[in-house]
Design a protein that fits this description.
It comes from Streptomyces fimbriatus. The mean pLDDT is 97. Helices cover 25% and strands 20% of the residues. The protein is α/β, with parallel strands linked by helices. The chain is built from 7 helices and 15 strands. The strands form 5 sheets. It has a 3-stranded mixed beta sheet. Strands 3-4-5 form a 3-stranded mixed beta sheet. The structure holds arginine. The site of arginine (ARG) has 16 residues, from loops.
């Protein structure tokens, strides 16, 4: 099994954490009274970008805007499949202006951005997974948005209900390993959604609450390398047993805002 996993080169969009801060609380991780070390955050983020590039991936950046402390979480800005861009409509009014900055980036690159009618937070809740799109709901993205996503892409959308406020976005509770498989934390999902996941992915990698609380499910996989929080040691060991190569990258400062590696990374799929 080891060495059978094949990496595919990816194109990632990221946003430098120049204005990163925790100024409001829109998830249970955020405590505006707890200080964030912005210099450390910048170093951690830089390491993530360097690590992607060292592994052969293309990394592009969108210009950070002052006054938008969560803009660093590029995954939330859109979901891009086959070069088509489904934009976001944030639930929190504090985050809504981010869409303007990201739209400018997409427009400059020749992309047209579809504006959803209902709350929808990009790859935070919409996770393209081979032949379908897994879609989270319960805290942010709505069922109406799921329908809109399916209509827009013409790809089956599989709705999954999140039930634990610590795992408010689908990408905090599940990540895609490759076209065939995923890793997830079952207790983050409603009983019915757990059953759906068990049917779709009988061989899934099952994470513990400890892995999930360490942002281990907020990982990025290129099919072989899994860029993963070093706190999720048990999950990393399971991935290594399955022939994946865990690449630890520590984004601890971003955990204070409720984000990790995947939150900081949007994949541009052409
Ligand atoms: N503070 C941000 C929020 O609550 C964090 C977003 C994390 N992004 C993600 N893809 N899960 O909206």
């Amino acid at each position: 099994m080891p060495d059978s996993r094949v990496a595919r080169r990816r194109r990632y969009l990221v946003c430098e954490p120049r204005h990163f801060a925790v100024r409001y609380a829109i998830n249970p991780w955020m405590h505006p009274d707890r200080p964030v070390d912005v210099l450390l955050a910048q170093r951690q983020w830089r390491t993530l970008v360097d690590t992607y590039r060292d592994h052969g991936h293309t990394v592009e950046t969108v210009k950070p805007e002052p006054g938008l402390p969560d803009m660093v979480f590029a995954a939330n800005a859109a979901v891009v499949v086959e070069g088509r861009v489904f934009g976001s409509l944030f639930l929190a009014p504090e985050r809504r202006p981010e869409t303007v900055a990201y739209e400018a980036w997409f427009k400059a690159g020749g992309y047209e951005v579809h504006h959803p009618e209902s709350v929808c937070e990009g790859e935070g809740d919409l996770v393209p997974a081979g032949r379908w799109i897994l879609a989270g709901t319960g805290f942010r993205t709505t069922r109406e948005a799921h329908r809109e996503v399916q209509e827009f892409f013409g790809v089956p959308v599989i709705g999954l209900t999140l039930v634990d406020p610590y795992f408010y976005h689908l990408d905090t509770a599940l990540f895609v390993l490759d076209e065939e498989n995923v890793a997830y934390y079952p207790e983050a999902f409603s009983p019915g959604s757990r059953e759906v996941l068990a049917r779709l992915y009988p061989d899934a990698v099952i994470a513990t609450r400890e892995d999930a609380m360490a942002f281990g499910l907020n990982s990025v996989s290129d099919g072989r390398h899994v860029f993963i929080s070093p706190g999720a040691a048990a999950l990393a060991a399971q991935l290594a047993d399955r022939g994946y190569v865990p690449v630890p990258v520590d984004l601890s400062e971003f955990h204070k805002a409720g984000g990790g590696i995947k939150c900081c990374t949007q994949e541009i799929r052409s």
